[in-house]
Amino acid sequence: EVQLVESGGGLVQAGGSLRLSCAASGFTFDDYAIGWFRQAPGKEREGVSCITSSDGSTYYATSVKGRFTISSDNAKNTVYLQMNSLKPEDTAVYYCAATYGSSWSFAEWDYDYWGQGTQVTVSS
Predict the structure, then answer these.
(1) Are 18 and 90 in contact (CB under 8 A)?
(2) CB 3.0 to 4.6 Å from 40: which of 59, 63, 92, 97, for a disulfide?
(3) What DSSP assignment string belongs to 28-76?
(4) Which of 99, 77, 79 has the alpha carbon at shortest distance from 25?
(5) What is the pLDDT of residues 21-67, one digit of tens each?
(6) Count of C-beta atoms within a 10 Å radius of residue 40
(7) Strand partners of residue 1
(8) What are the Cα distances from residue 53, in Å, to 42, 75, 86?
(9) Within the chain, how many helices (H) and strands (E) appear?
């Protein structure tokens, strides 16, 4: 059974940090790129960051570049999203997702598997 399980969300003050984890199982982790998405209340889901399986290349949305860092521990089949200098506008449910292949993408329809999401709330 394919599973993506996010953890690490919570409530933090503006300027603080959180590290999200995405633990994958049930598929060949090295064959997939992993992306982080978020959805704020009343807004469309948007791509935040992605890491490719082929060479570990990373990609970031403009809104988080320089504040968020994505990384992967292939031995643990886990991808992390380190979020620093958090802002109230980062408040959202954060999802990780897996897309087969070595290319990066922020298009939801490219992704095969999704986690259940973890809530991140940043207070001002």
Answers:
(1) no
(2) 92
(3) -GGGEEEEEEEE-TTS--EEEEEE-TTT--EEE-TTTTTTEEEEEETTT
(4) 77
(5) 999 999 999 999 999 999 999 999 999 999 998 789 999 999 999 99
(6) 14
(7) none
(8) 32, 13, 27
(9) 0, 11
Distance of alpha carbon 30 from its chain centroid, rounded? 17
Q: Residue 45 and residue 43: Cα distance in Å, rounded?
A: 7
**Length, in residues, of the chain:** 124
Q: Mean pLDDT across the stretch 7-28? A: 97
DSSP label of 108: G
Instruction: State residue 114's pLDDT score.
Output: 98
Query: pLDDT tens digits, residue range 88-114?
Result: 999 999 999 999 988 889 999 999 999
Please choose, from the candidates 73, 123, 114, the residue with its C-alpha nearest in 3D space to the C-alpha of residue 95.
Answer: 114
Residues 6+ apart with CB under 8 A from 34: 22, 24, 50, 51, 53, 70, 72, 79, 96, 97, 98, 99
Using CA atoms, how far apart are residues 41 and 105, in angstroms rounded to an integer? 23
